[in-house]
Amino acid sequence: MTLINNHSFITNFKQNNFLNVFPFSRYMNIEALINKYNVPGPRYTSYPTVPYWKDKIIDTEKWLASVCETYDNSKETGISIYIHLPFCENLCTFCGCHKHITRRHSVEEDYIQLVLKEWKIYVNALSTKPLIKEIHLGGGTPTFFSPENLKILLDGILKHSTLSENAELGFEGHPNNTTKEHLKTLYALSFRRVSYGVQDYNPKIQKAINRIQPFENVEKVHDLAKKIGYTSISHDLVFGLPHQNMDHISESIRLTNLLKPDRISLYSYAHVPWIKGVGQRGFKDEDIPKGDEKRALYELSKKLLLQNGYHEIGMDHFALESDSLYDAYVNKRLHRNFMGYTTNTTSLMIGLGMSSISDSWGAFAQNVKSVKEYTALVNENNLPVFRGHFLSEDDLFIRKHILNLMCHFSTDIDAEFRNHHFFKSILKKLDPLQQDGLIEFSSSQINVTELGRIFIRNICMCFDIYLDNKLKSQNTFSKTI
């Protein structure tokens, strides 16, 4: 296979407007646009975003009351559960998740009992036996846990709840340690979705991010899941990694297309060493693609994926037409929360485990970030939350519009919006983006253009009433491009 020369592609990229994917001739130079809008900004898995949460020490009784109120108002639609399994045997230097590095698998059993104890606190507070619409096992590395212990965990969760007939259950699997037994055990427990963290197949990049896993490992677990009967297999790829160039991303997409996963997450590498510490200092800053060069990695990936039958869904996601994520996007049922994009819209999401975040729609609450603190609080029969935010009417209004933009690339200009006291200030902030061709106004909608999808985070930032220049200039968020 002939790979693409990195320098010549960048030159072609600048001269030919992203390989003619978009009609950029109507707009200012794309390089100038990226330089203009590539600023620190949130990813909007919540609104308000975590740095602006007001309750640095949350009132647990008030939080639990919010959970119960939301549950009573929506119990028939079901709830979502996110379970954070934080343990990893090795530190991946690209990772921004909350994790606990250890090779001692003796930690599994105690941690599972803590999660079940936390779940029981919530169950005891609810008025009826909860209906579960969605479960996601995240990490860390969920497949750090043995299949037997994962069964104990899930049996304990389901013992005190009812599983919806159309529930969606998924987990994140590490290609190097996901076994046939993991896949069979979770399949028997109604899991039909698995997401494998691939990142990039190039050995030099894998060494830089301390994530060594050859294509053969991914192929093995991918084929195993397919053979067992998983109906939605996802691969996570990352663009903007240290040393990554056009040749690398092209080859990674080529290999991914050979396996044809149902979904692909193509995440932007967030270089935030001031937050995650030494784990993201295993390489030099100059090794990381930036600006238009980084964006070119995404556009090439997108071009190759679209040529192979994938559709762009929301931000950073792609799916085949046969996958439920595509169906949700087309029929405007796509939802976004702390688990990312999901096909299920529930008003209540309960996060279990160290650092998990819960969402009662009217409030957010996050668990403590260390296993030690989590253990101490749960063993005292306390909810392990340490900070949160109770949403005002203004928060709920803005949240609705940001969620629409992130999921559907449009939002309605309805009577409520026109009469809201933020309407004029939002329009004023959106005006430069309209002039740059990122959005279009109709009489009743704000629509994101094809070009504007690149800058979706910047568009949402125009609605964010908490965002201020001081915090944007500090080391708080990753850059938007």
**Secondary-structure-derived class:** alpha/beta
CATH fold name: pyruvate-formate lyase- activating enzyme
Count of all domains: 1
If strands are numbered along the chain, what order do they take across the biggest sheet?
9-10-8-7-6-5-4-1-13
Could you list the spans in which at least 5 consecutive residues all have pLDDT below 50? Answer: 1-27
CATH homologous superfamily assignment: tm_1862 like domain
Annotation field: number of helices: 19
Distance between the termini: 30 Å
- Characterize the biggest β-sheet: 9 strands, mixed
Overall morphology: globular
Top CATH class: Alpha Beta
E-strand count: 19
Radius of gyration: 22 Å
What characteristics describe this protein?
globular; 3-stranded antiparallel β-sheet; 9-stranded mixed β-sheet; alpha/beta; 40% helix; disordered N terminus; 481 residues; pyruvate-formate lyase- activating enzyme; 19 helices
Description:
- By secondary structure, the chain is of the alpha/beta class.
- It has a single domain, classed as tm_1862 like domain (pyruvate-formate lyase- activating enzyme, Alpha-Beta Horseshoe), CATH 3.80.30.
- The protein has 19 helices and 19 strands.
- The strands form five sheets. The protein has a nine-stranded mixed beta sheet, sandwiched between helices.
- Strand 14 and strand 15 form a beta hairpin.
- Helix 6 packs parallel to helix 7, helix 7 packs parallel to helix 9 and helix 10 packs parallel to helix 12.
- The chain is globular.
- The chain starts with 5 loop residues before the first helix and ends in an 8-residue tail after the last helix.
- The N terminus is likely disordered.
